[in-house]
Design brief:
alpha+beta; three-stranded antiparallel β-sheet; 6 helices; 8 strands; about 30% helix
Length: about 240
């Protein structure tokens, strides 16, 4: 029987599309498709047109897609605007074009300015977090069609879908710059450059571990998890983003 893992609808007429657990623009393929009957059309439209769309257009995803030359669903070159201008992929990893805005254009033309600073901070961390929570629940659903509907995930599905939560939530972002640079030089990824896994701990903590190319994310899939203050992170390669 069909049942949406987010809104819990069981109307079988509302399950007509396939869902990539990991978006194609982040490395997902046929191996990352959610089983049929678990994600309704309404929720897919809501995530795709608002939540996920905003996350993929924000740092770090849009930077990754642009610098690696990963095309959009419509097979267009990825790009993004920031306060100094526009950066657009040239169709190959490590190659892109830069168009300064009017304020900086003359400075570049005269040689007064030779470098641009690309932003490396998310403007919409909530959308990134909700997208990661969505991915996490879908990974669980793809492995256990009963566990994903357990009460312990109710707060997760409510926050991911509707943005309502009772406690602060966080995710940990890791960037392997050495891996990125190595790929730019050699154009080869390790076989496991994209994967999704779920960690279960004895204290009840359940965590998504997502890796997509040189980016990794760790995010708790249950609410009210408090990060150990003894944990030390090295900026900017390791970041804790709390929403």
């Amino acid at each position: 029987m069909a049942k949406c893992i987010f809104c819990l609808t069981t109307d079988e007429t509302k399950f007509n599309t396939k869902e990539h657990i990991l978006p194609e623009s982040l490395g997902g393929g046929e191996w990352a498709i959610l089983p049929d009957g678990m994600f309704c059309d309404s929720c897919q439209n809501k995530f795709g047109s608002t939540i996920e769309q905003q996350a993929l257009a924000d740092y770090p995803f849009v930077n990754m897609r642009t610098m690696l030359g990963i095309p959009t669903k419509k097979n267009k070159a990825p790009w993004f605007k920031y306060w100094e201008g526009t950066l657009e992929s040239a169709g190959e990893a490590g190659k892109f074009t830069y168009e300064p805005n009017e304020y900086f254009k003359k400075a570049f033309e005269t040689g007064q300015k030779t470098l641009t600073i690309v932003p490396a901070m998310t403007k919409k961390p909530e959308m990134v977090l909700r997208t990661l929570l969505k991915i996490g629940l879908e990974v669980i659903a793809s492995r256990d069609k009963e566990e994903v509907f357990e009460e312990k995930f109710n707060a997760t599905r409510e926050y991911a879908l509707n943005g309502n939560k009772n406690y602060p939530w966080f995710y940990i972002q890791l960037e392997d710059i050495e891996m990125f640079n190595d790929y730019i030089r050699n154009k080869e990824w390790e076989d496991y450059h994209c994967f999704m896994d779920i960690y279960y701990e004895d204290n009840g903590l359940i965590t998504l571990h997502l890796r997509t190319y040189y980016l990794q994310f760790l995010v708790p899939l249950i609410e009210n998890v408090i990060l150990d203050p003894e944990n030390k992170f090295t900026e900017p390669e390791e970041r804790v983003i709390t929403v």
